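User: My instructor asked us to take a sequence, write out its structure as tokens, and then describe one feature of it. I'm not sure where to start. Here is the sequence I was given:
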Amino acid sequence: MRSSRRIIPVFFFMIIIPLFSQNSQDVQALLKKVSDTYKNLKSYHFEGTTTMEMKSEGLQQKMEMPMVIAAAKPGKTRLEIKNPMAGMLRVSDGETTWVYIPRLKQFTKKAAATVETAGGESEKTGLDAALVGSPLAQFEQLADKAKGAKMLREETTEIDGKKMDCYVVELPRELPKNLPVQMESSPKTLWIDKARYLVVKESFSGKMSSPMGEMQMFTMTVYNMTKTNEPISETLFTFAPPKGAKEVAELSFPGVTSLAGNEAGDFTLKDLEGREFNLKNLRGKVVLLSFWATWCGPCRLELPQMEKLHQEFKSKGLVVLGVNDEESEIAREFVKSNNYSFPTLSDTKRDVARLYKISAIPTLIVVDREGKISTHFVGVRSEQDVRAAVKKAGIE
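Assistant: Let's start with the prediction itself. The structure tokens for your sequence are:
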């Protein structure tokens, strides 16, 4: 009897351990297929709605944000968020790019950005341009987030009257540790269409605690249209200014005061390797300050531009400095995994963020050779805009 009691646990672990290992391998392979699917899209038209619900004592709010995300080569893109308070539209026909903010009744009109190909030729920015700041960007990177992912189940879900067989996967969700309020979050759940390896639904919930009380939050995004690698209607890539809309050189957001023209506040910070940087000591060079965080999706999409500019102009007097206020180990791991070589300064006490009145990220500040702020960008900007700002400060 004693020997049989010993055999049962051993037999149990011999069966269970391979099952867990196989599950982990299967999830990693699945997320790799999803990443590859989004990276290799030739054209797409996604429509969906993000629903956010917030509940606290005596308060219940619900907000819906319908979205349209579309792209077709060469350089035709559309990213539209439809919401009275948070709505925006960025659309390009390949030659011209428009950005329109409905609540401001303002729009900008600029020549479409260009990028250098591997062969040195110039072409209009393609499918990636529509991903900037959009929920689709995360799906390109799912293979990098496979660690800790779990296969929950397989199920049939109904979206817009159509039934789809899906894998249901759980992803761990990391939150920054230096937020001004305490936050907890559940893992993110993804519903992945078995036939096309596209995410058709995602959800997560969370809780925010502050001296003002506690708030429960729930977010669900459903993509009711997922049209890929098919002809896309040209009407999606045109823009007609709505009645009353005004064309401006730069969008002016309420509550954000441009620092352009001011003397750049001096500071001293150490980078992630312990090297000390003092802004005043960099006089005579053009300094590009990029305020970012690992949890910020638009930042993740903008940082490759910073690396590209760093490599291209570091010998011509441009100093690119990232500024990050997270724990150094979090930022260090992220920088290393993405092979970013420009210095990232550790601002864990947020002294420099307060000095430059950073209220949103990504924020870019260009300091000219005389120590004055020549350009102040809040939010993601095209590579063309950033290059123009660097040129304005004296980098050719």
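For the description part of your assignment, you could build on this observation: Residues 1-22, 114-126 have pLDDT under 50 and may be disordered. Try explaining in your own words what that tells you about the chain.
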